[in-house]
Structures are given as structure tokens and as C-alpha cells.
Amino acid sequence: MNPILFVIIQGNSKQWPGSYVITADTSFLTSVNSESVNVIKHVRKLSYLTFDNPFHAQLIDSLYKLLKERIAFSLTYISLRKDNGLAEASQLISLGKGIGISKKISQMISNR
Q1: How far is residue 20's CA from residue 23's CA, in Å, rounded to a whole number?
Q2: How far is CA 22 from CA 27, 59, 68, 78, in A?
Q3: CB under 8 Å to 31, separation ≥6 — which residues?
Q4: Which of the two ends of the chain, N or C, has the fewest CB atoms closer than 10 A to its terminal CB?
Q5: How does DSSP classify residue 51?
């Protein structure tokens, strides 16, 4: 996979929201919101650049929806960790929904 796309999808350890769940160190959260906004901004920009290509426009729209879903899931387990503690947040993560969404994003990008 393209390393830039990997960073967009997975982030690095300083930005990955799951690091907060494990450690409760709020310094991991400092860039979560700004990075999420930046990723969405870049994908929206791609949608403007591909508006005249129906295939790519649909692909970018699907990618946008998956990224929004992935970000929302991350924010859910961050809130769960803050409000209910490590056990509940870990349980939610262990269901594999976030990994499943990330895999869909990776497949979408690598298949095109």
C-alpha cells in the first residue's frame, strides 16, 4: 500500500486514538480532531477534482463516507474511555469494527 495512504488511514502512534485508550494519556488526543478534519478536507478536495469523472466521483464519495464512519468510531471509543474506562473501550475495539472499516478503506484504495 502507498505509505501516504497508510498514514491517512492508520496514523502514526502519536496520532492513533487507540493509544489514548491504552494509556489514558491525553497528549495522544491533541491532533486527533485536527488530523480528522485535514483528512476529510483532502478527500473533499479530491471530490472537486474528480467531479467530471463519474467513476472516480463515486469512489471518492464512498471513501469519504468510510472515513467519516472510521473517525466517528474512533471518537466513540475515545468518549467511552473517558467516561467508562479502559475495559469498556477495549471491549468495543476488540469487536473489530474499526479494523473492518480500515480494511474496507485500504481495499478501496488499493483496488483502484
Answers
A1: 5
A2: 12, 34, 23, 10
A3: 14, 15
A4: C
A5: T
Please name which of 42, 41, 47, 45 lies closest in space to residue 62, comparing C-alpha atoms: 47
The cell 469519504 sits on which residue?
64
> How far is the C-alpha of 111 from the C-alpha of 85, rounded, in Å?
38
Each residue's pLDDT tens digit, 52-107:
999 888 989 999 999 999 999 988 988 998 899 888 888 888 888 988 998 898 88
- CA 96-99-102 angle, 5° bins: 150
What pLDDT digit, counting tens, does each position of 38-56 carry?
Answer: 888 888 888 888 889 998 8
